[in-house]
């Protein structure tokens, strides 16, 4: 044969002004061999930041491009949220929010730079060292700021709208300015403007974009420090007085990947999780008495026999959780920086088999199933050690629809705090080994407090069971749930019963 399959490649969409062009046709690998990507570039010659809205609606030219890339379907809906079940299964790819990186604002700030010309300068708040030429006429920073905000406002509004449906959306910063005033004047209508003035305008625009991103919960990709020296573009990365060259692309792609992997906590596909519940078989019992009040309370605090719990106490060494070595876009979980402040242990297959036996039937099973008519499975069984004197929330990762959490105390006596979504404390009491809490994370938050000694708990994440899968207890490290419950990698995930392959791929 003359064909050698090199594997699958996922797209990253780079959209907007000419700063996205250096990524055109790039294929790249990452530090994780299974993650390989291609850059899908959509460049618009006549789409400045102020053109993103037309008569109050998203610019039709942008919408057409997103439809052509399959980001929106023919009905104008986000395709990843309403995927065709057969085509998604046959394509062999999970239904995940597309990674879209938007570039905008360059043409707008070039107009402002040209307007300032060689006659004006201004004082930039928190100036990193560009200073001010007092021989020039002063321009108030309020004028600069107002122009930037008004010119970028349509772009910001469209980003806010798209972010509601696309958690994989990002905004890229404007690049550093070239020191060469003559070469840079090509982009400011042949008007020569001093490099410090140009740099301050670009930095002010980036600060505004960073503030917007923080407010809208959008990752802001800013490689300014990597591409600059003394506040200006490094010569080896400059192309033509404004753009960066292709040798800078790996640096920028590295920052994009970092932002993507640090944003996996919001990557769940809610539609697919809701569909999973519809497929899941009904729970046959036994039923917990508290099931009648679950819809009102949203939590249950119960207990198991100490002898049952002792058998689940992880004997392996607990290690710092300050890195998530298994971070993956296919899982909802903690970012690369992990979960500082606690230690984790990897349970043995024997521990997981004991947990599967304990929670597979009887009263322990009824506790996990409280108020749920569909059969649940434990997608992550995570032993955690909390330092003495510390108070730790039982995971801050948002939960997908129809999923729940449980917390089992396996060690020293400690305290538990149960609060509602507004932070109002509902329960605060001492607990001992065997205490177990189950709750709806969308309505309830739970904190475990260690006293004079460290305590050990087990965090459990549950979701509806796919009908062809057994009740299973898995350990997925710092990853809580699969983003698409019909398609996700289980490579390096320990489970009982074990997974038969490295990939879960089922029809929805």
Question: SSE layout and pairings?
Answer:
Layout: E1 10-16, E2 27-29, E3 36-43, E4 53-54, E5 57-58, H1 60-68, H2 85-91, E6 99-103, H3 106-116, E7 120-121, E8 137-138, H4 141-163, E9 169-172, H5 181-184, H6 195-216, E10 220-221, H7 224-227, E11 228-229, E12 232-233, H8 249-261, H9 270-279, H10 291-297, E13 299-303, H11 306-310, E14 319-320, E15 331-333, E16 343-344, H12 349-359, H13 362-368, E17 376-386, E18 391-393, E19 404-409, E20 414-420, E21 425-431, E22 435-439, E23 444-449, E24 455-464, E25 473-475, E26 479-482, E27 487-489, E28 494-496, E29 503-505
Parallel strand pairs: 1-3, 1-6, 6-9, 7-8, 9-10
Antiparallel strand pairs: 2-3, 4-5, 11-12, 13-22, 14-16, 15-26, 16-17, 17-24, 18-23, 19-22, 19-24, 20-21, 20-23, 25-28, 27-29
Helix pairs in contact: 3-6, 4-6
What does this structure look like?
The chain has a 7-stranded antiparallel beta sheet with strand order 13-22-19-24-17-16-14. With about 500 residues, it is α+β, with helices and mostly antiparallel strands. Helix 3 runs antiparallel to helix 6 and helix 4 packs parallel to helix 6. The protein has 13 helices and 29 strands.
């Amino acid at each position: 044969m003359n064909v050698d399959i090199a594997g699958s490649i996922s797209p990253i969409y780079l959209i907007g002004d000419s700063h996205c062009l250096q990524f055109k046709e790039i294929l790249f690998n990452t530090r994780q061999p299974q993650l390989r990507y291609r850059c899908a570039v959509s460049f618009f010659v006549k789409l400045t930041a102020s053109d993103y809205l037309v008569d109050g609606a998203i610019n039709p030219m942008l919408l057409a491009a997103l439809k052509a890339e399959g980001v929106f379907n023919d009905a104008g809906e986000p395709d990843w949220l309403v995927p065709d079940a057969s085509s998604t299964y046959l394509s062999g790819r999970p239904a995940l929010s597309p990674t879209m990186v938007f570039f905008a604002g360059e043409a707008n700030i070039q107009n402002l730079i040209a307007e300032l010309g060689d006659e004006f300068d201004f004082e930039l708040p928190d100036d990193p060292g560009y200073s001010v030429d007092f021989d020039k006429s002063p321009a108030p920073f309020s004028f600069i700021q107002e122009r930037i905000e008004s010119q970028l406002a349509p772009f910001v509004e469209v980003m806010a709208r798209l972010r509601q449906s696309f958690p994989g959306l990002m905004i890229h910063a404007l690049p550093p300015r070239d020191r060469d005033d003559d070469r840079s004047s090509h982009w400011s209508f042949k008007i020569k403007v001093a490099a410090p003035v140009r740099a301050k305008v670009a930095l002010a625009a980036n600060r505004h974009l960073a503030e917007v991103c923080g407010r809208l919960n959008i990752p802001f990709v800013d490689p300014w420090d990597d591409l600059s020296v003394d506040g200006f573009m490094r010569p080896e990365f400059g192309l033509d007085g404004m753009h960066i060259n292709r040798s800078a692309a790996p640096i920028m792609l590295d920052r994009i990947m970092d932002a993507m992997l640090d944003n996996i906590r919001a990557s769940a596909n809610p539609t697919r999780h809701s569909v999973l519940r519809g497929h899941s078989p009904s729970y046959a019992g036994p039923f917990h008495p508290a099931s009648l009040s679950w819809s009102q309370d949203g939590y249950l605090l119960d207990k198991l026999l100490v002898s049952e719990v002792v058998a689940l106490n992880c004997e392996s060494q607990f290690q710092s959780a300050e890195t998530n070595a298994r971070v993956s876009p296919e899982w909802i979980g903690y970012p690369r920086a992990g979960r500082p402040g606690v230690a984790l242990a990897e349970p043995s297959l024997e521990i997981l088999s004991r947990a599967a036996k304990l929670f597979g039937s009887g009263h322990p099973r009824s506790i996990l199933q409280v108020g749920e008519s569909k059969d649940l499975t434990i997608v992550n069984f995570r032993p955690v050690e909390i330092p003495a004197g510390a108070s730790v929330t039982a995971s801050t990762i948002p939960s997908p629809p129809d999923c729940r959490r449980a917390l089992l105390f396996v060690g020293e006596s400690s305290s538990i705090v149960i609060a509602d979504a507004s932070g109002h404390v509902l329960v605060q009491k001492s607990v001992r080994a065997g205490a177990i809490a189950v709750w709806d994370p969308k309505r309830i938050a739970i904190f475990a407090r260690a006293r004079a000694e460290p305590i050990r708990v087990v965090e459990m994440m549950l979701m509806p069971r796919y009908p062809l899968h057994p009740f299973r207890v898995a350990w997925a490290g710092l990853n809580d749930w699969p983003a698409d419950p019909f398609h996700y990698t289980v490579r390096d995930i320990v489970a009982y019963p074990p997974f038969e392959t490295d990939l879960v791929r089922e029809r929805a």
